[in-house]
UniProtKB/TrEMBL annotation, chains A, B:
This is Transcriptional regulator. It comes from the Bacteria. The keyword Transcription regulation applies. The keyword DNA-binding applies. Keywords: DNA-binding, Transcription, Transcription regulation.
Length: 191, 191
DNA sequence: GTCTATAGAGTGATAGAC
DNA sequence: GTCTATCACTCTATAGAC
């Protein structure tokens, strides 16, 4: 190897955190060099496509993380209330109880939505569909499962905003608890 | 008068729309001059504090709008289901069924949160407290009213994100309908 | 020497402030 | 319009593993 290069995984993690904190426009290359300790040369060698490629790489990394830590437990047969619980636990950890922003949510409200629209839509669609399938496997008819899944993802996003706006992680925690109760069937009684 | 000046209210409206669309960092003075038709000189005459003052002025304007169109109907005695409905109607119109972003929500997730934190927190706090008071006047105990109010504001924010991410206004509409059912007592039966 | 990842001065364009 | 600072990005030079 030509040089003692840094750990690419850690570089990506730092990059993701900077994008989360400052948004796409708010993140300057100078800020990235400072945060990662990498010079511009290294950065443009790693990401020839510049800032846009840095963002898409981060988004792909997030997608992979969600597949492993959020979707996989939901898809594990057989479905148990534990699957739901482990998803909500992972979500709570990932979003630091609402104090850490959802990059996909941030991008969805910015004008970069157009640039990354497919990735953003795919992220939310996959999450909703995986959760829908999981809920269908317990007891819910497709329509109800779908709406409940949408409501879950929606409330997590809303909880992040409100929790951050009021600087109160309790709001996020309360939302997660509430979702847990709603998603976990209190009794195996069909409609 | 030295010059035929433009309508300040319309200028402010345009300014708000640009900030919503591009965020704080994403909005350049050049973009503002283009959108408003005002030269840089006029802008810095109107807002000596520069971009930051433009944003604070917009935020104050939004606050006033909400007081008039959202809070006032909720505070009107006596409380009726119509108060809730008119709030939700105003919200739907204001956010263009989720296709128009909430500037306070956007700022809450950015690193400008620190700069405007008081205004942002005040916006959400006032909304929640007004709705709480309104719900208490029907039938709900304080604790329940407060949680329901929080849930309402939270779901509206989440609906904007999800609705925009999936480019589907129906999600926002469905959320509003759901909130209407939850906020409007189906029967005057106490706990 | 060859190669690759590094660092960082330098590029023009554009930012916000005045 | 004019200013300076900073932007994203380019490019040259080089350090070190083969």
């Amino acid at each position: 190897m030509p040089r003692p290069s840094k750990d690419p995984a850690q570089t990506l993690a730092i990059l993701a955190e900077v994008f989360r904190e400052y948004g796409y426009e708010g993140t300057s290359i100078g800020l990235i060099t400072q945060a990662t300790g990498l010079g511009k040369g290294s950065l443009y060698n790693l990401f020839p496509g510049g800032k846009a490629e840095m963002m898409t790489t981060v988004l792909t990394d997030i997608k992979t993380w969600f597949e492993t830590h959020i979707y996989a437990p939901l898809q594990a047969e057989p479905h148990t209330p534990t699957s739901i619980q482990s998803m909500l636990d992972a979500v709570t950890r990932y979003f630091h109880s609402g104090q850490r922003v959802c990059l996909m949510g941030v991008l969805a409200t910015g004008h970069q939505r157009d640039q990354f629209s497919e990735t953003i839509a795919h992220y939310f669609t996959t999450w909703i569909e995986t959760l829908t399938a999981s809920l269908e496997r317990i007891h819910l008819p497709h329509h109800d499962a779908r709406h409940l899944a949408e409501e879950t993802v929606l409330q997590i996003q809303g909880a992040i905003i409100l929790s951050r706006a009021l600087n109160d992680p309790a709001i996020f925690q309360r939302t997660i608890t509430q979702l847990h109760n709603k998603l976990t069937p209190p009794a195996p009684k069909a409609k």
